[in-house]
Amino acid sequence: MSENGTFEPNQRSIRVIGAPTDYGQDRRGVDMGPSAIRYGGLSDRLAEAGVATEDAGDLLVPRAEERDPDYRTPSQGKARFLRETEDVCTRLRGEVRESLADGHTPLVLGGDHSIAIGTVAGAAADADIGAIWFDAHADLNTPTTTPSGNVHGMPLAALLGVDEWAGVDWANAPSLSRENVAIVGLRSVDDDERDLIAESEISAYTMSDIDRRGLADVVSDALDVATDGTDGYHVSLDLDWLDPTIAPGVGTPVRGGVTYREAHHSMEQVAEDGGMRSMELVEVNPTLDQHNETAELAVELAASAFGKRIL
User: Which EC main class describes this enzyme (predicted)?
Assistant: First the structure.
């Protein structure tokens, strides 16, 4: 905000990092998400937002078809492609940390949501951070509670060290506290995740909360949660947060998501707050999309989060 209280777009430098992985879920194709997002006009839209952009390219990620799913776990249970996920997230953590040290805001393009382990761990390496999780799902499963073994349903649990994720150094972000985590837009939650939310200090807002209170009010609360005593926050934007009628190109669509205008307004609130430390766009699957509209929507929302306005 300026001294007179009016909003001024953040003049910041963004480093784009692609993490083209589909290890974390069953539906192949999400590894093409970074390419689809770039093709959707990312650099031009960010330029319209008044920010400088540097593209670091994509991490080298071997294809899942070349690897054995190998149900390895931190202790017990099941977690598919865990060894490969560890490798990608460890390298991504280093890229994100280096970007911040160089004065850039990291914008990570997924790939499935398992990459959040690397993004958030990198953002939290040298700071106390909060996190706002815009998602239809809680992502709080563990290898013993997961119904599928897919790590894209576990990144928040991994970062917070929940149960068997505790003490897994590559996956934990000790400077991310549960009381500084807000999940916005929930509408598909497993029983164990529901219990964890009820018993913890995580702030969770369902679509029913949004219907009752309005999304602007909910996002305002989420920003308060993520900024309370922190050095900034990470924004994790899973495109299945939106209703599948406007974002069909995702692997786990859930009806009843946020609308186009609601999504943009939420990202505008993030930009106005000015405390975002890092961001990721995940779960764009071009093979399930229609005319690249989900990737193009991801681009639009990123631009709004970095300050693009109509006037």
Answer: hydrolase
Q: Give catalytic status of residue 152 as yes or no.
A: yes
Write the single-letter amino acid at 226. Answer: A
Is 135 annotated in some ligand binding site? yes
Report the alpha-carbon distance of residue 106 to residue 236 in Å, rounded: 12
- The set of residues, in sequence order, having a beta carbon less than 8 Å from that of 66 and lying 6+ positions away, is none
Burial class (CB in 10 A: 0-12, 13-18, 19+), 288: middle
Indicate if 70 belongs to the active site: no
Question: Whole-prediction pTM value?
Answer: 0.92
Q: 191 an active-site residue?
A: no
pLDDT at 5: 39
Q: Is 224 a catalytic residue?
A: no
Q: Is the pLDDT of residue 107 over 80?
A: yes
Q: What are phi and psi of 88, to 5 degrees?
A: -65, -45
Annotated catalytic residue within 95, 243, 268, 283: 283
pLDDT in tens, 114-150: 999 999 999 999 999 999 999 999 999 999 898 888 8
Q: How far is residue 70's CA from residue 43's CA, in Å, rounded to a whole number?
A: 38
Q: Which residues fall within 8 angstroms of residue 199, CB to CB, at 6 or more apart?
A: none
User: Does domain 13-305 fall into CATH 3.90.78.10?
Assistant: no
66-101 pLDDT, tens digit each: 555 665 555 557 888 888 899 999 999 999 999 999
Please tell me whether 291 is known to bind a ligand: no
The answer to whether the annotation marks 231 as part of a ligand binding site is no
Instruction: Provide the residue ranges of all domains of the chain, joining segments of one domain with +.
Output: 13-305
Identify the active-site residue in 104, 152, 234, 264: 152
Respond yes or no: is residue 86 known to be catalytic.
Answer: no
Known catalytic membership, residue 139: yes
**Residue 273 is assigned to a ligand binding site:** no
Confidence of residue 23 (pLDDT cuts 50, 70, 90): confident
* 238 belongs to an annotated ligand binding site: yes
